[in-house]
Write a structure and sequence with these properties.
390 residues, Rhopdopsin 7-helix transmembrane proteins, Alpha-Beta Plaits, 2 domains, disordered C terminus
Length: 390
Amino acid sequence: MRFLNQSIIAFLMVTAASIAAVLLFTTWRANRHMAGVRWFAGAGATGAVGFFLATLPVPHTDGPDWPMLINGGFVFTALLMVLEGSLRFMHRASKLRWQAGLVLVPVFVLLNWWYEDEMLAQRIFHDAAYSMVVLVAAFTMLRSVKGDDRMINSLVAFFLMGIAGAMAARSVVAGQVDSLEALQRHPVHSLTLAVVVLCIMGWTYSVHMACYVRSQASLRLMLHKDPVTGLSGRQRMVDFMQREIARSERSGVRFSYLIVDLNEFQRAGGYPDSALADEVQLAFGKRLDDYARDADFACALGDDQFGVVLHHTPTQEHLRGAVARLRHLLAQPLEVRGTPVQVDISLGMAMWPTDGQTLEALENIAQQRMQAEKFSMFKPYVQSEGLRTG
């Protein structure tokens, strides 16, 4: 490790910390909704400042080494933010915990100042504290992990354990040498700094990948299940329709596809309340789900639209009867927060194979008929407004 002198290592640490801060910031910007990520971004920025302060020259005075004291405070704060981010990323949020963490920072700085005259003791205290915080963060990322998250979270924990192990090793060596100069000449010191640099970059990359994996999982969940209504999502509807088309091609049994658009809703004795929108959609989706038989399928399409697949509709009369029953059911007020809510809908329907033999064809016909019904509902209002303003 002779080629790794102090100046090169200091430059590498500052560079690695700065790159990590930028990458973590961009990761947070892309995943602002994800718990814990902003704490990782804050840790990256705080750690970069701390590593930069460590490169400042030591003041030629008999007073405390303020750059190193502040450096220790910043680095310790960054590691606490890594721990808090890991806990929140694993859905273990606590307001009291991070407030207690704020108290630990000045305590750490005071203890750091207390050991000012005993540099080896200060180094042992530093490394032991750093190692313990990082180790807890590593085990946090591994606890109760299943599925796709297991591998990527294990990678995050691996790099954190690398930092903790390097710090612990230097702490052990610091207890065996006679002076700080001897510690700095020891190969373990340079190796520790090199491992920390590599693990910082590895941890940054693995955090980015963990956010990507989680965002993809959330997207797949949204496609398969609507988070507001609890109904199946569009992707599951596509899968169901493809199976239904294949089954109908074999058996010749006709089925129909309906698109229901929730135009607006009106509270009894009042005006629409935007705060009730999600609850109205939830109640509306439940009513659609109750209407669908075991062989049928109801789903949320997004933008206040819902889809219903009717498994067996052999004739147009059968379809019109099913649609009439659905309209009658949806015309009944919904019960939301103990208050009746009247909904207004537009509905379009398409039958296989009369209106189309593919999902796209059926969906286009149903959308066109739904839009035509919506326009016919609002046309008298538009004309009256035109006469009034004209």
